[in-house]
Amino acid sequence: MNELLRKEDWWAVWIGLGLVIAAIVLFANGTSIKWLAVAPQKWSHVADAGMQLRHNGTRYALLGACWAVLFALGAAALGMRAARFVPAFLVVYAAALVLYFLGLWDQAAHYNLEPPLVALGAGLLLSNTLGTPRWLEPALRVEFYIKTGIVLLGAGLPLTLIAWAGPVAIGQAAIVSLVTFGVIYFSAVRLGLDRRLAATLGTGGAVCGVSGAIAIGGAIGAKKADVSVAISLVELWAIVMIFALPLIARGLHLPTGVAGAWIGTSEFADAAGLAAAQTYGGYAGNVPGISGTADAAVAAFTLMKVIGRDMWIGVWAFVLSLIAITRWEPTGVQNRVTAGEIWRRFPKFVLGFLLASAIVTSVSRGQDYAAYKQAVLPGLVAPLQALRNWAFTFAFLSIGLTTRLREFASVGARPLYAFTLGVAVNVVLGFWLSTGVFGAFWNRLGQ
Amino acid sequence: MMPRQGANDGCRECVHFDNGAAAVEAALPGLKSLGSAHAAVRAEDGICALHARYVAASSTCGASRRRASLTPERSPSAKCDP
Q1: Backbone torsions φ then ψ of A197, nearest 5 degrees
Q2: CA distances from A444 to A164, A265, A292, A435 (A)
Q3: Which among A101, A217, A256, A332 could bridge A222 via Cys, Cβ 3.0 to 4.6 Å?
Q4: How many Å apart are CA A244 and CA A237, to the nearest integer?
Q5: What 3-state DSSP class applies to A68?
Q6: Per-residue pLDDT tens over the stretch A272-288
């Protein structure tokens, strides 16, 4: 019971599913949550944007208050002070509002002003020059926002799609995860690094980024400094990939579903990957030669990263902790290994993602396509997608504002070499699997 | 909270162990940027000041010293705000 209120994953589930259920109740009663789930529309001139803002001012204010209350409830349960969280969050919300509007400028794609990249770039610039104000820090909870957004994302993905594409995602992700882990781990050991550091680096690169590094670091009792090195390397490459993967995919005119699968295979963290996938999705219809829908990039990414990689971190932790206590040099601290490790470290927000999908799928069941397009999509699914985009924008903004580039300087050459080799193999193998072996499959997802 | 000498009840109850979210995020710079000490994947892991390691709460060692009073996730820095 305690964990249900004291872990961020569960609060993401409560907030995300709460919004989904509220939306369904309103929809069933002949109305919709779309009044609250306000989002900017395409605009051409600043005057148009200003008029939208004035016209919907009350709705934007209420949406901000609603998000502030929901996230403050979670933050307070996690031990943060709500009185410090709320004012800081309202500033994050205001900044997100500006970015959301910017992304819907009809010239945004022409000037490469994709909201995730602008949010990240602006945040990085501020935090690494003037510094992020300390009073803003309580509201910069990247993972809290991204997990809530992923739960809401489930509402837009039919369960049948997850069942159809999930096994392929798991298969592709398993190949890449095992190969990437092997490359990083064995090259690190060959470079003379401690096996625990090698394993922490390996899972950071192969499974789920920073979350992978802390899960495995704790499970095998790694040195505190080694976990820090793994976190820094994951962040360094995750930030590079946010910019590099969409850029390369754009140059090659990859369909959105294919690019999303590649990003899901080769990015290191959920928030970073979603920033890259959402950026690429934004090219659909705006950049000539890129086929597929905007949502296909995010859907393929999520299937690959969340279902294919994140879900399995408990299994990695169990197996590696078993190997650590039976095969590796003792450290003075004895770990206890049980199969319960698999559930303890399971990223619980995945359950919310699957439940949201199952609930909305069951509500839509029996509706033909025309009825779905006419009623369910605008009245139920689209408003939840707008709320998802808000949560993601809060996260993208928080990434830049919490990333300190100077921290990357202290990782050391050998961990950098081993990790970078893994990154290179991961990117090439992920590209080959996403565009070649499973290319037709991921392309179909975007049609 | 006075430590009891010689007890070996695991890191969770040890005076050298701190698994408060704020303490973990302070000890692992960058964790907040693309991860979180509040994540389920962290379970109850925390920092062992004695061995300078990041360990599971269920771990044990011969040098552990038990705290007098306990909470499920106790830390001198229980509140998470910086």
Answers
A1: -65, -40
A2: 12, 18, 9, 12
A3: A217
A4: 10
A5: helix
A6: 999 999 999 988 888 88
Reported as a single tens digit per residue, the pLDDT across A296-334 is 999 999 999 999 999 999 999 999 999 999 999 988 888
pLDDT digits (tens, 9 = 90+) for A234-260: 999 999 999 999 999 999 999 999 999
Mutate to test the interface with B, among A334, A392, A396, A411 (most CBs of B within 10 A): A334
Residue A212, CA distances (Å) to A45, A196, A262, A299, A309 in order: 45, 13, 19, 22, 10
Taking a C-beta distance cutoff of 8 angstroms, is the pair B57, A431 a contact? no
Residue recorded with tokens 């999509």: A377
Which residues, at least 6 apart from A419, have a Cβ–Cβ distance to it below 8 Å?
A: A184, A188, A201, A204, A205, A233, A237
Q: How many CB pairs under 8 A join A and B?
A: 179
In total, chain A counts a number of residues equal to 447
Identify the H or E element spanning A84. Answer: helix A82-103
What sections of A155-223 are H helices per DSSP?
A: 159-190, 195-203, 209-220
Residues 19-38 of B with CB under 8 A from A: 20-22, 27-38
Q: Output the CA angle B58-B64-B67, nearest 5 degrees.
A: 85
